[in-house]
Amino acid sequence: MRDRIVAGNWKMNKDWDQALSLVADIQQSLSQETTNSDKIILAPPFIYLAELAKTVAQTQGLFLSAQNCHQEEAGAYTGEVSAPMLKALGVEYVILGHSERREYFSETNELLASKVEAVLNQNLKPIFCCGEPLSVRESNMQEAYVNQQLTESLFKLSAERISEIVIAYEPIWAIGTGRTASAEQAQEMHASIRSHLADQYGHDIAQGISILYGGSCKPSNANEIFAGADVDGGLIGGASLNAADFLAIARSFE
Ligand code: 13P
To answer: Residue 210's domain is classified under what CATH number?
Structure first.
């Protein structure tokens, strides 16, 4: 019913030769053995997208994502990349609101609402990241914190538009730390996110939205995490930089 998705966020990693070789390894492996993911998404740095778009399109079930984009369509914004530019290359997804963008580039819920709109205006799909810092988890306020992120960035969207979104729940304390959320913690938050979506948009729409888990997801824990009823896959950082690990995760659905 919902797409089962495994997405690799390369962040600012891999030189060009390494990028080519990683994609070639992924395609080679997919040509020999499929996965039980519906979609496998690669999110390399911007400058690799144009060239990789040519090869990725040849592999069924493999898609490209950007890691960010600007909220305006064009203009005097030195160093930025717009959603129409991504669309023209054949990119299909854009990660928005990653905690690293929120922290190091001061992205707010309000700014992200405009980026989400800019991306949807091009018929691209946002992979909208949410998730709480450790201090919020320790005071057990994570549901309210994430609900506020969703409310302020997404809930002005129409029902038709929200259905185009993929949500990634990434608890900040689990990102790059080796400390993953337990399968129970992940499922609990995903169920809470889906219930907020249902409150806002109704049961059917909420049931159709894929919610991915991110944060130290690896071949050894993906199976257990993905078994959660509301966990529809993963947004993978470190483990997406190795083809064998990434594809092992993409084969971790029951
Ligand atoms: P890690 O898988 O390296 O913890 O990173 C998760 C992440 O930030 C994906 O966007």
So the answer is: 3.20.20.70
Structural domain of 242: 5-250
The pLDDT of residue 254: 86
- Model-wide pTM > 0.85: yes
Cβ of 131 less than 6 Å from ligand 1: no
Q: pLDDT tens digit string along 150-161? A: 999 999 999 999
What pLDDT, on a 0 to 100 scale, did the predictor assign at position 1? Answer: 80
| Atom 1 (ligand 1) nearest CA | 237
Residue 133's pLDDT is 97
Spans of the chain below 70 pLDDT? none
Q: What pLDDT does 49 receive?
A: 98
Catalytic residue among 92, 170, 190, 196: 170
Residues 247, 26: contact at Cβ < 8 Å? yes
Distance from Cα 76 to the centre of ligand 1, integer Å: 32
Q: Number of folded domains in the chain?
A: 1
Q: Where do we find the tokens 């824990």?
A: 221
Ligand 1 pocket, 215 CB below 6 A? yes
